[in-house]
Fold each of these.
Amino acid sequence: MAKGSNAGLTALSDDIGSVIVSLRWSSATGDGDADVSVLLLDDNGKVRSDADFFFYNNPAAADGSVQLLGKTPTDIGSEDRISLDLTAVPPNVERIVVAASQYGGSCFGELDDLRVTLADRSGETLLGFSITDAGVESAFIFGELYRRGEEWKFRAIGQGYETGLAGLATDFGIAIDDESEDDATEPAEVEPVLKAEEPRALAVEPPVAFPAQAVREERPADANPTPTPTGGARGPRTAKKKVTLPKVARKTLAENDSWRPARLFPAPSLKSDKERELRATSVLLSVMAEVPEFGRRLTAAFGAPAGRMQTFTEVTLPHGESPKRPDGVIRVERAGKLWTALVETKTNGNPLKADQVQNYMDIAARRGYEAVITLSNDVALEGSPLVDVRTDGRRKHKVALWHLSWAEVAHQAQMLIRHEGVGNAAHAWLLQELLHYLQHENSGCHGFQNMGPAWVPVRNGIDTETLCQGDRRAVEVVESWEQLIRQVCLRLGGELGQKALPVQRAKRGTDPHSRRTALADRLCEEGRLTAELRIDGTPGVLAIVADLRTGKLRTSIEIQAPEGSYPLTSAKRLIRLLAEAPADLHVETLVEGCSGPRGTLERLRPEPADMLPKDGARMTGFRLSLFKGMGATRGSAESGFIRSVDEAVDRFYASVVAQLGPFGRRPANRSQATEPAAVS
């Protein structure tokens, strides 16, 4: 679409009752990001109330018409998706505005590949609009859906605001109070405005690797302030009170520690893979049906409407001479219409079988079902499908094939019970029981836990210098590494309640296969696997390097020196922040044009001045690194590679990154502090 053009949805698809709007962008540095927002407007072009404004802390409408689905990584950046159930939009809503905003002085001109797409409930893209003229704007309207009679149409807008989302929100009827200068200069004492009705709670049993101070509710101090509506209210809030599990577990009545508490979903008795699949499918589907927030979160991205959900297991369906029995069926009813998905489950690292999935795709197409959902320990990668299926183009009815990993299921459960909350205490307890089951060693639902058959030959080939570029086994190892990193992001995000995404650095337009082939060639040449993670609330990108030649894992982060601070002051402040960090932490000073001083934290603590460049060169920041021995086996045993990566990331985040706080972030100047507040 061209800027300013419009298109009717009914001319593009027969099924536009529910659509998925996707916003995409990338950045050369890999750390550019934005937050999406949606506004429902009446015939006057204004919101009816604060409840018509949806953002990261108010992600869903009570009637299911709007659901912010969150970010998913792509090969060039990230994609933020929004589910819109057009059949549930109130009749007095005339327009749905889709926008995004940035904070901390960033602007959309710093991002590349700005694009909005709209797809139907089957996942088929109907239209797209690329924005090529973004500049200094800190908020952008990508497009809008609007009514024309009985039809919904989409208009490509591409209009920005230099005043941030505050200016955009004001235009659409959300009043904003200016902060006083004193308030703006002390952000730590200002209550966050766009905050849920109840604060997020930590886990009942917080993981050892993540201290309490690592889990933060507030935005960084340099994030945009947020709007305050008229009438003294402190900003838009979620529609209903949320309930989380208590922060501290109740005192046990057991006589000794050997007594095991009763569990709703026991796992120790499972002996075979078939038993694990049956139990895992039944447990998951039953909780999805009983906890609406959880069921909706797992199915909304697949085009399911917000409605009454029922789930079934071991359903027999006719298929030629031999009936087939998918592991499960999900049905959602809304306004008299049914959305149906067949579910195929694998546990314990067992791979999905293409012939099974193909049978279910054929059955779904013949019976008019909307989707087939596969569920296994594998993590799906863009451009690398887990199973290859054929689609009969002659069939008018189209079936979408989606994949969930057990790690993603656990991530969504963690986000709800530990950070965002659910409707009532019973639902929170159900999710806690589900999470306990998934994490049990005998459940078979541990996520990606095996680097594959190519891992050992590739390591041996690197060790003996016999691995050649173009070896297909190296590509398989790169794919396994990418799956592992995506799972690490899911686990970190669930523990911290923050967005954690892998950073993909590739030339614009590079397809996933070509990118992985290039990384495989680098692996053959250098003997190293590399990855970068972007975690909200941290002052830099977390880098991971697995050196297969030396058998060492390196986790590191580069942080900028505070602007306007003296070098020695910056060095002393860094040492103070790292008071609880490991003594073997490597600290390297980053200097323009040359290598800077380096040493262990143990040596530098008494003499921070040793971190300063001796020749007067300009110091730009610091690189902090920890090293760990790398596991040798391909699986998840104590000596396994995957476990060693998990442990290295956990230790580095908890003992180093979580201690840094806002170090190196640019402070807001006085002129910025007195501007109207903006929504992030």
Amino acid sequence: METGEEFGPWLARQLKLAGKTQAELAEGLGLTRAAVSAWITGRSTPRPTVMVDIAEALGTDVGTVHTRTTDTQAGLPVTWYHRPGYQDGGRDGGNAAAFAFDADVQVLARETCQNSLDERLLENGRPVRVRYTIHELTGETLEAFRAAVLWDELQPHYTSVSESAAEQKVGRVVDAGVRDMFEKSRLILLRIDDYNASGLTGDDYDDGKFAAVVRRQLESLKSGRGAGGSYGLGKATLWATSALGMVLINSTLSVPHEGRTERRVIGRLELPWRSVDGNSYAGPAWLGRPDPDTPGAEVVRSWWADEETVDRLHLTRDNDEPGTSFLIVGAHDVASLEQGKSDQTDDDEDGSGDGTRDIRAMHRRLVEALGRDFWAAMTGGGSRLPLLETSVCTKRNGEVVIEEEKVDPTDTQPSRTRALRAFYDGATVDRLTEAGQVALRTVPLRLPLSGGRRGTLGAHPGVLLVTDAEDKDGASNQVHSLRGNRMTIKRSGVNGLPLGVNSFQAVLLVGHAAGESAPFAEEAEEFLRAAEPPEHDRWGQTEELTVRWSHSAHHRISRLTTEVNAAVKDLVVRPKSAGSQESAKLRKKLTVPRKGAAPKRASGSALPELDGLDAEIGAGREWRITAEVKLPRADELPAMTPVVLLDVRSGSRPKLDWAELVAVEGCEVEDGVLRFTPGARRAVFQGSTDVTSHPVRTELTRLVLELRAGTGSEA
């Protein structure tokens, strides 16, 4: 049962909302102003018979006055407040933060689930529960929802945006979303509920979680030490996934605000600049109760809604457990088309799906993303409990289309789950000798000193787990790397493996994931968090890493990768036997000699040569390249600079930037330059391109990799 607010603060706010003074209320009740003042200051409370008169004066029922779990409906009604246009004539074509992510439900799942993990309540030790509900509205159900969000107030703003849609990217998306809703008479709602989380605590305007999410951009106020987010960008995925730019919010607070915790409701709209009835508007708008403390009571704030209101807004929560519900209005999944994963079902015949709004495809892609990115957070063992539980449900007009599906990490990632549980249970081995075993090795992350100082703070022992692969794992011979919140940050292959090696899966635990008592766990967590881009999908050079540590600090991560690859090979590659050596001799005899081979050059002029190349497009649309270099016999080999170019039909080839360059075998990487190990006959390195340097979509390009002698400008 919800505890109501203290009578004094509640009454004071109701008078403001109703536009009444204490003297006017006293006169209406036939009492002195001093009596009303005593109620508001908490020196006394009214008698039950007076409560009836107060309810009549405020235009509400006596139950609302007694329980004080919601505001009265008297006075200023809930409405939309649109931020006025800038006085200097400036215009925004949309929220720039939303452009950091694609309209992709899998990206949405990654960012929102990470945020929920960061806000998990730690005191009770229970996991945070996150549920995704896809709900398609049609017919009368759609009409009732449009009435609940006051669509008639919004219509002129959407019309203005549609009229100028050709000039703005956001405008084109919004125009398509509105047309889809009216022409096909359907709307997709995607709701994310979390439970056992902190909720949007704090004041509407002052520093706090509520203001950070609802009022501000690029602000991150996370609760946990091992928080995944750090840029304040993740929340933008909510609005990026809405074709209408609309998100409604209902939060149950872990810490009372204004004496209450349940049904704190607000909505936010993200539109580009527009002109309506001769007035210009900057972009964002909020749905809420007008704040009488603001000039003209125009600015709206959150309000404590009643159960009927949250039901009409499709925001009813299961119980009073702290957490937040985000409702994305007009959800679409454009990335599903780009990846060729849109499911065509019989439901398309009745207009329920067009690829981007196919509710069955959305359901499948959400389950897939949650199992891929958060399998470790959903895994427990030994004394460690899971941090997370997730599920996905799909409905149409309140009727279940796909039953709620709980994501099971043992089903989506069986090998990695087995490896992590073995670590938690203390059941690992030194070497793999039988199927199903999990081998453990420690690999050092040598942490640099901050502030550009030379030297090493200390070595953090990361935990590497290796086990046999299973078919359900997906691509084999992969390393999943994660830190404190146990979300998969980096997925990478292990190159240079010989033929015939048994398929395996590996997990790298660093920071708090390696254990709270691991040496330098806190420092490793901070260092690696700073090495992540906004997508939190790799570790490498970032501006924060350069500013706080040094421009070469990312080399420590490259060395960690080299250590990991070497440890994996030591565990999975079988030692050569006399028989295998004989087989190698036979293979050499069967090798077809090259005709017209050029004579060997003198050692002084010998240069390393590219001998093998493998490339694929990564999840972030970057090129991921693995290259093998043949090294000549020479006393000293020159440094070489790998340069990646776009293959074009004519003109000079555009050069792409490296986001990450990592040595795997037989070399080291220093400031983008390869320096080869003396005596080595081959070298392997890996690299990922910087997507921001791509002039066109990655899928439309072909690559050329060159190995140039020299360093920096010499290359």
Amino acid sequence: MREMTKGANVGLADLSDDAGSVIASLSWSSTAGDGDADVSVLLLDANGKVRGDADFFYYNNPAAADGSVQLLGKTPTDGGSEDRISLDLTAVPEDVDRLVVAASRYGGSRFGDLDDLRMTVADRSGEVLLGFSIGDASVESAFIFGELYRRGTEWKYRAVGQGYETGLAGLAADFGIDVDDEGENETADGVAGPVDGEGAAPAVESAGPAQPLPAVPAQPGPQTVAAEQPAASAPAPKRPRARTAKKKVTLPAVATKSLAENDSWRAARLFPASNLKSDKEREVRATSVLLSVMAQVPEFGRRLTAAFGAPAGRMQTFTEVSLPHGETPKRPDGVIRVERAGKLWTALVETKTNGNALKSEQVQNYMDIAARRGYEAVITLSNDVALEGSPLVEVKTDGRRKHKVALWHLSWAEVAHQAQMLIRHEGVGNAAHAWLLQELLHYLQHENSGCHGFQNMGPSWVPVRNGIDEETLSQGDPRAVEVVESWERLIRQVCLRIGGELGQKALPVQRTQRGTTALSRRAAHAGRLCEEGRLAAELRVDGSPGTITIVADLRTGKLRTSVEIPVPEGAYPLTSAKRLMRQLAEAPADLHVETLVEGQSGPRGTLERLRPEPGDVLPRDGSRITGFRLSLFKNMGATRGNAETGFIRSVDNAVDRFHSHVVAHLAQAERRTRRASAPEQGGAPVPAPAGA
């Protein structure tokens, strides 16, 4: 891997023979666990300007129609999160000269609050080609991490590291874009979302002539990039307002009224699952259903394969293909082939359903076949969720082979998440594609499909639970680490499901110190499990007023979901308490409200008792209130599986109830308050551009 310094550049062809499609990754960490930023990509012409609105890719406009740019979203890492971007350089239009990769923070947050700011670029096999770390971030709320630019027929990378105190609006203005940052687009009920059910994109307008960044030279060669110094009175950055950029089809959240005479009538399904009887039937059907929809719905096929280095091109898929391997041919469950500019990208697919584990020997055979035949990847697909530092299968790579084969993994939960994001939130090209994805999603969610995602806490669950109950579980017991890994897989799946349903980013929060590895973090968590008998996790859902905490107490058999709501500095205590009761008008009566008093717990009670007397939640000694902790408790399922009475289902239900009945109401109340106070703070809102 080439480690870059600020201003340096390098040709991608010098680092890899297969850099036509790359994955750019932006990462950061936070010891507090609350760090976040949004990535963006701008396509620039030879004059250093965008050609129009479509050249700005952001969280609500994540993919180019030609497949050249696709924001793949965030994934958890050892110490924080990583935002990945697929860049198919062979598909970039000829009149695009540069691709600028940037990130921005909002709500007054600064990049100086984050650690380990870094950009890496990997080729389509997953091998990291270069890395660039930013160590001088301070008050900036937007950063250009790097750019890829043409030199003749070659693509090069330049490490930029230029920050902006004026946020995304200031950054974008330098490239000919006006960003409307008057807050997010909201639906009638105050919930942020796309307009009229269509896919939404950032509200951008091509501006008049603006000078390109003088600090980012157009010619190759090592350069030093000087950060701009905007005026000290620059306003705190806000997230840009979303608006509809182009017509896309999404399905309504509420299904149309059925024409059936009674509930016993079953709708005809394109992919029936009720007659599946064996694991083999489930694997064959699931593979065929998924691969056929990937080939017929370009947005979906591209969404799943872009992260694996596949180019944007014509896709064909196959099942039960016989391939020579020694004396006995092997039959991978599927083959994906993508053709672009006369070149083929090929991946073998190995599928498992119904909780069956992947087999190392089987995957190893496919890796060997792929290497001999010049294929690019092997993709495994199962209910398991992959974790860093804990591979699902162990394979060996022959270092003597020049051709590299990448091994990738997909969870069925991730497949369902991507389908739901497209048909509910981002949109697809036409109604037929939306219907196909809906049929796929219905199949995956059918109880007989075997494609339900992570659904078993593993063989160590019962002995660990019994060991905690009997106080016989010792520190260093490897079974405790296995339970912690299963817990982490479950939490990641919960995030995928919530994110797909809400259309918002949802990630587990990692509170780790610099240099902490995934293995050491899990070992520490396992130690706390042995000592305290509790599993704990935190979720950050975009748009929520705080971090959601989940604690599973194996000693008491209780699940606790909670969120902490800070009190504004200088606010009157009784006013804050009354305001909280109004915000929780529709929350469950058994919600526990606990006052936080300068780092310790204060008075507490259920919402039912506190509603008529909000003052009862105030400390009698007049101590300063810093916030409130809101909690719901639920009995924990005991069994390790995904049955109605199982642990996994109880965690799902607890998070769903807490988010829908508490967090969502708080978020709506907060948005209503911001709208009401907006004219007082800054005058009437600026109208959105035409089409918003």
